[in-house]
Amino acid sequence: MLKKSVKSKIAIFVLSLTMLLGTASLAMAGVAPVDKAAANGVSAPQSIESIHYHVTGTTYIRSGPGTSYSILRTVYAGDTVWYNSELTDYGNGWTPVYIGSTEGYILDSKIQEY
What we know:
Keywords: Signal. The chain has 114 residues and is α+β, with helices and mostly antiparallel strands. It has 2 helices and 7 strands; from the N terminus they run H-H-E-E-E-E-E-E-E.
């Protein structure tokens, strides 16, 4: 077993290395970042980026959260759209989504979460 002072020095080194190089560099070096939720025995919530929806009927993706905004794309029943965490979610019955390169808002009543 390592002494407490050696463990502290290693922890400081890894933290410093993470700050200097970023986690991508550590991944290439074979050092994985610690998932705090998993370390504490708590399951992490589903990543918001991975939430996807089934379109239940033909509708539009609009440039903003409402019918007064311009139509960017038509989507059809059976299409899949993904939650877009980069757009503001106003919680007003319109969900921010993307499909391909189109980013916008879709009416909640026209989608169903997988």
